Structure formats: structure tokens, C-alpha cells
Amino acid sequence: MELSEIRPQLDSIDGQLLDLFLQRMALIDKVADIKRRDPSKPLYDPAREREILMRVRENAGSDYGDAAFQLFRMVLELSRARQAAQLIPATSVAARAAAMCAHEQAVFPQSGRVAVSGVEGSHAGAAADRLFPKGNLVFMDGFAAVVKAVQSGLCQFGILPVENSVHGSVRQVYDLLREPDICIVRSVRQLIRHVLLTQPDAKVENIKTVYTHEQAAGQCSRFLQKLGADVIPCTSTAHAAQRAAEAQDPTVAAIAAEACAKLYNLSVLTDDIQNESVNDTRFLCIAKGASCYAGADRMSLLVNCANSPGALYQMIAKISALGINMCKLESMPIPGTNFSYRFFVDLECNLHQEGVLGLLCELERSCDSFTLLGSYSEIV
Questions:
Q1: Are domains 3-86 and 91-105+291-380 of this chain identical in fold?
Q2: Where are the domains of the chain?
Q3: Tell me, what's the pLDDT at 128?
């Protein structure tokens, strides 16, 4: 048989499959209607799904059993996603999402009291200036202090670095996002350019000590390895520049932004020190409570999947079933556990988008723990 003869048969079968799929989804709508009227009937019936999948695998035989199993598992995921979109249970994530929508504001503010880690001249400060051109920046000693300032009401907003395109994620910030009553309301990508700052009369070959933040040290690791100096970590690169200036020692330097040179009366000794020329850091803007702003097209979640085969796949399948793009998935070990992991997830979607609230409720139901961190937009 030739390919030209086979393709029309495949097209015919595809048409039949589509017709059957549409018939099945129409029945799923009726199932959802029954469950809406009778809340005692669960959305997810694992025993029935296992029974269907085992029967499919057995009937398909050894040659196609596994493929049939995967096909019908996706059909069941799509069916459950369809039901979830129509059944919004009274869950904590539903309440949080409703609060976000209720407090949704049309315009992101240009002013406000903003908590920033470090001192004047930090990259976080530059990110804050982009987000709040008329903002009142309050510099804090560390990321935890930024979160506390927002939680206490001392500041309306806080700026936290969450990941760098070269050196990866800031794990400490991920942990802090789990703090109660914190919500991501915006993010911004900031181009980072590091320079070596010293006293005006310093020479590279004489540098013995370098102050900097651990992230900046990682981003400039090749330069530091060649330099061979002692690296002393600081809470921010701007704080590093401040300490280098206070030392008044030509053997002491700092890795920081070029803007810190004028602020702290230092000189740029060399400016070609980054491992990569493209070096962006993503900063999150947090606020207290549950709120969002119009135009939000990104959502961040913190999820604990069950430590069992297929648990992560099932979570991803639920998201995929709605055609939502997952733009970030990162695992983080859970302290005090034996190789259990928490996942930080970024999705490209909006709370008002059809099926999204049902998806969030289904994820909350099926995962060991689930937190909606925020619905927001990102400035690039």
C-alpha cells in the first residue's frame, strides 16, 4: 500500500476520533452539571480513572498498550480540566483569587514607599526607580527586612531579586515569598553591568580584598579566579562599594554598579569583568495582602507535589490541558525532609481567563500544598 492510499484513511479515522471526542466532552459537561447540583460528588474519582486506564492498556495489547494508556490519560486530564473550569469550589485559593480580582486596580502607581535591600546605588534600587519613578526608596539590611517592612505596613511595596540569567535563582527569596500576606504585583528585568571599584591610585595587581554580593561574585567568577583576591560577601553590591570606600585602602576593591563610583568617591579600575555580556536580573515587586493590576499576564505558584510516580507529570498535564504556557519550573529541596521538593512555577495566564480559576482549585486539591503568589505583568 502506498502513502497516498494510507493518508485518506488516516484523515477519515481522525475525523471519527474528533467526533467521538466532542461527544465525550458534551457528556463531561453533563457530568459537571450533575456535580454542581450535588457537591458531595467529587471532581476527581481516582478509582474510576485507574479502572479506565487499566482496561484501555489491557484491551490495546502489548504493542500499543502503553501508547493507549498515555492517550487516554490525557483525555481524562482534559475532561477533568473541563469540569474544573465549571466547578469552582470554596477553597483558599479561590478566596485569594477572588480577593485579588476584587482589589484589582486599573493603573500601577508611580509613587509609594518602597523597601529595597542594600544601600544607595544598588541594582535593586535601580529596578525600584524603573517601577516607581516618583517613589520614596527605603533601604533595608537584607531581603528578610524588605519582606517585614511590607508585612508591617512600614512600606507599601518591596523589591526582591529572584533570578539572574547567568547565576540562577536567589533561593532565599523563594523561601521568603512563602511568608503570609505577601503578594507579587509586578516584576522587572534589569540589565546588570558590574565593574571593579577601587581607590583612585589602586592597581589591579595589588588588589587583595574584594567586597561584593554573592550573586555578583558568581556572575564575575572567572575574573575573580584570575585576580586571586579574598572575596568578602556583603548584603548588596552597593554596600560592598560603601565598605571599599570606607577602607580607604588601595588593596581593597568592590564589585558593584558603575553608578556607585560617583556615590562613594571611587574609581572604575576595570569594567570587563562579567562572565557573560548578557546579564539580566529579574526583580519582583511585592505588596501586602491580595491585590493585582489590570493587564496582568503572568502568575506565580509555589507547589508541593506528592512524592509519588507521575505526580509532577499530572500537575503539568493539568496546565497543558488548558493550553497555558509554563515559562518557569524550578525545584527546591524542602528543609528537614529526605529529598522532597517544592516547585516554583510561572504561568503565562490571567485570573480572568476561562478555566484558570478552576485549574488553580484543582491544583490546590491535588497537591500536598499550594500557594498562589501573585498575578502580575513583567517589564522587560
A1: no
A2: 3-86, 91-105+291-380, 194-270
A3: 94
C-alpha–C-alpha distance, residues 35 and 43, integer Å: 7
Kindly report the CATH number that applies to the domain delimited by 194-270: 3.40.190.10
Single-letter amino acid, residue 324: I
CATH of 91-105+291-380, one of 3.30.450.20, 3.30.70.260, 3.10.580.10, 3.40.50.2300: 3.30.70.260
CATH architecture under which domain 3-86 falls: Up-down Bundle (1.20)
Distance CA 330, CA 170 (A): 12
Q: What is the pLDDT of residues 130-171, one digit of tens each?
A: 999 999 999 998 899 999 999 999 999 999 999 888 778 888
C-alpha cell at 339: 529529598
Examine the pLDDT at 44 and tell me if it is beyond 80. no
pLDDT band at 74 (very low <50, low <70, confident <90, very high): confident
Report angle CA 298, 136, 240 to the nearest 5 degrees. Answer: 85
pLDDT tens readout for residues 115-135: 998 888 888 899 999 999 999
Kindly indicate the confidence band of residue 332, based on its pLDDT and cuts at 50, 70 and 90.
confident
> Which residues, other chains included, contact 110 with Cβ-Cβ below 8 Å and sequence gap of 6+?
132, 133, 134, 135
Residue 366, class by beta-carbon neighbours within 10 Å (0-12 exposed, 13-18 middle, 19+ buried)? buried
| Beta carbons of 270 and 145 less than 8 angstroms apart | no
